[in-house]
Amino acid sequence: MGKKILVIGQGGREHALVWKLAQSAEVEKIYAAPGNPGIAELAQCEDIEVDDLSELLFFAWSQKIDLTVVGPEVPLTAGIVELFHDHDLQIFGPTSAAARLEGSKVFAKDLLRKYNIPTAAYETFEDMQPALKYALDFIKNGRRAVIKADGLAAGKGVVIASTEAQVTAALVGMMQDRQFGKAGDKVVIEEFLEGEEVSFFAISDGQNYLPLMAAQDHKQVYDNDEGPNTGGMGAYVNPPVYTAELHQEVLKTIVEPVIAAMQAEGCPYQGVLYAGLMITADGPKVLEFNCRFGDPETQAIMPMLDGDLLPVLEASARGDIKGVRLGIKPGSCVCLVLASGGYPESYQKGLPISGLDAVDRDTIVFHAGTAKKAGRIVTNGGRVLNLVSAADSIREAIDRVYREAAKISFENMHYRKDIGHKGLAKEG
Ligand code: AMP
Ligand code: GLY
């Protein structure tokens, strides 16, 4: 009998995971909680929020779900994996102890230091005065200070400060005004690293791992990396800065040591390891780890995977990934995010989207912040849609994705015009 899968989440990342899993010959039915209108074309959506662990457990148990795949970090840091294990349910993702790699920047940085894994020089603080002194020393020396709230802050907990006023505002906000609540009880302050950013993904079973791919996100809202940071405005795979040689260095100096370190610390890491890297003049250094797939990187990676993803996720969850293989297709793939005007600040919702039916079959539309209202797809979030095109070269993939983007419209729609250009510059 075919398998029943539950995917937790509602973004473009989860749509891409559902799309990939739906191609598995072993899958009979996919459920999503809560899903979105795009996901609803491939899966049965259940109105359960991602942080409602008891409802998710009850659903998976009563429907006899064979594997639950967790998209976002919040249920992972809240302990959904151990909860499911307690009820003999198979689930893909790290336990809350292992998810501290993302959930606590102090934990992650201290682990990196203890095991000699390359990362920015840093200190951690619980009190304002020493934190101020340490951060201001960077500024006095003409450098920038990177100030990070320890806990999860919905992507807003990192401030890159270049003036004394910015340092003070960030520390007062986090430590005194508690703008992120408990997440700011401790802060990490670190040196600013220069370089190009790369996201690298590997799937681990706690001991062994399967490398997936590298991708490059575009975090700032405007072209040329200007404007405030967002969840990610687009991504492409195989960034040229991530050479084959660098890949070997990342595996040897970062991925393997961190998997071994987590095992040695008694919290083996099972799930997808997302290493946010800065490629500096001194080699690759860890900016952060995430305990989940990246969004929008996943939307660009899924179409590149050649083979069935389900056995890989199952092997990670079971703890026997050794020997499991997954091919990578040649060529390139680009994901372009169509966002609401105003995002990442305030924006309107409920605006009708037109042109979805006109999109060519060579481009995939993954939904993120959409809703269905009176039979029409409308905007329902900051990042609304992801257009994903694969092609033989990055040039072709970029041309394709922008050709299709021109067919879609909603009021105040905004997208970057330069997704993938860093890759293009080097491809020539
Ligand atoms: P994080 O959540 O720690 O990855 O930080 C969010 C973003 O801030 C990263 O994707 C980088 O763009 C930037 N960032 C974080 N730490 C540093 C650093 N030490 N040097 C330069 N940029 C950083
Ligand atoms: N692409 C950034 C993230 O998933 O955190």
Task: Please describe what this structure looks like.
It is a single chain. This protein is α+β, with helices and mostly antiparallel strands and 428 residues long. The chain has 4 domains: 3-93, Rossmann fold (3-Layer(aba) Sandwich); 126-185; 196-328, ATP-grasp fold, B domain (D-amino Acid Aminotransferase, Chain A, domain 1), CATH 3.30.470.20; 332-427, Glycinamide Ribonucleotide Synthetase, Chain A, domain 4. It has helices spanning 12-21, 53-62, 73-77, 80-86, 100-103, 105-114, 128-140, 164-176, 244-264, 297-301, 310-318, 394-405, 421-427, and strands spanning 3-9, 27-34, 44-45, 67-70, 91-92, 122-125, 145-149, 158-161, 187-191, 196-205, 209-217, 220-222, 226-229, 234-237, 270-280, 283-290, 305-306, 327-328, 332-339, 363-367, 370-373, 376-379, 383-391. The strands form 6 sheets. Strands 16-15-10-11-14-19-23-20 form an 8-stranded antiparallel beta sheet. It has a 5-stranded parallel beta sheet with strand order 3-2-1-4-5. A 4-stranded antiparallel beta sheet has the order 6-9-7-8, with helices on both faces. A hairpin with an 8-residue loop joins β7 and β8. α7 packs antiparallel against α8 (164-176). The chain is globular. Bound molecules: adenosine monophosphate and glycine (GLY). Residues 120, 146, 148, 158, 160, 190, 192-193, 197, 219, 276, 287-288 line the site of adenosine monophosphate.
